[in-house]
């Protein structure tokens, strides 16, 4: 990661949105924005007791947690957990509506509607770099 990049952790539903996340990350890379994805949702083979510590440790490299919000994100166990972990790690949590999600989609607990933007690269860039000095 270079010195002048925004470190980003991407949160998505592991059960059904791996391909969506991969496509998003590919498109994000094509934008050539000064961001560095330092981590993303991943299955961790650790017991429940240590799960939060392992995931939170990986999140500490980031400044922003970007939640890829789909119609099922609000009920996704890993998305809800990771949003909670990101808040505990003092990350700014931002949501992006994708894959059919609308302003009426149920959001994961802890993700406020005011921190969610629609699927628009300009809006996403504006929100990512709001209040951020890189």
Explain this structure to me?
The protein is α/β, with parallel strands linked by helices. The protein has a single domain, classed as 3-Layer(aba) Sandwich (Rossmann fold). It has 4 helices and 5 strands. The chain has helices at 18-30, 48-59, 77-88, 121-128, and strands at 6-11, 35-40, 64-69, 92-97, 116-117. Strands 2-1-3-4-5 form a 5-stranded parallel sheet. Helix 3 (77-88) links the parallel strand 3 and strand 4 (92-97). Helix 2 (48-59) packs across helix 3. The two termini are 12 Å apart. The model has no long low-confidence stretch (mean pLDDT 88).
Labels describing this entry:
5-stranded parallel sheet, Rossmann fold, 5 strands, 4 helices, 34% helix, 134 residues, alpha/beta, globular
Structure described in brief:
The chain has 134 residues and is of the alpha/beta class.
